[in-house]
Amino acid sequence: MFKNPILWWRHEGRYYHKDIYRGIKNLIAWFPVIWKDRNWDHCYIYKVLQFKLEQQAYYIGSRDRHTTAKRDAEKMLLCARLCQIQQESLYEMEYMDYEDRRIEFVPMPDYKIDGEPCYEMTSTLLHDNLDEYFAKYPRQYRRALSGEINMFKTSSPEDKTRELIAMEIAHENQKRSRQLLFKILDDNIERFWD
User: Fold this and answer.
1) Fewer beta carbons within 10 Å, N or C terminal of the chain?
2) Strands, E assignment, the chain
3) Residue-range domain boundaries for the chain
4) pLDDT, tens digit, for every residue of 44-102?
5) Residues in contact with 92: Cβ distance below 8 Å, sequence separation at least 6, in sequence order
């Protein structure tokens, strides 16, 4: 900068006002994401990644400066949706939509903290519609029945309950969506530029 101020001004200096404007705009856009960020859970990493992918997709998609800009924006938004799925554990919790449970908090008479009673959560299955869930994922269902998916390390496939099979399918689907997210990023991230 000090060796050749004219050269510096031509290439960098005259754009400082734009850099300052862009920096302030970025601080405002990122503030809610950073404010809510915490260091104890992986879902916050996905939130940061999701926000970045969405911002870059909207920018590249709206500028349309290269032949694959629209397609790249679609891939980025797909990755952002997969980040959302990972944050919410959407597939891991999906099987619960097919169960009707009654949840109660039962007092524990022998256990108190500072004189206050403690409660134990109990869950009672009233009705399940897991056959519909299994029909939704037939390939994963067959893999869980055969023991190919054995998340809970049961000794034999016959030992698995319906709920255990549903949990294994849900876990496998969540894992597959995470692998898809990083596969798309691995294949395309270097092309995500304007």
Assistant:
1) N
2) 99-113, 116-128
3) 1-36, 93-176
4) 999 999 999 999 999 888 887 777 788 889 999 999 999 999 999 999 999 999 999 89
5) 170, 171, 173, 174
Q: Which of 122, 133, 36 is nearest to 94 (CA)?
A: 133
Find where tokens 């023991």 sit.
147
Dihedral of alpha carbons 155, 158, 164, 165, sign: positive
Pair of tokens at residue 128: 């399940």
Per the structure block, which two tokens stand in for 163?
């709920």
Identify the CA nearest to 76 among candidates 51, 96, 45. Answer: 51
Measured between alpha carbons, how far is 62 from 40 in angstroms, rounded to an integer?
35
**Tokens of residue 15, six digits:** 């754009």
**Helices 162-188 and 69-88, interaxial angle, to 10°?**
150
8-state DSSP, 111: E
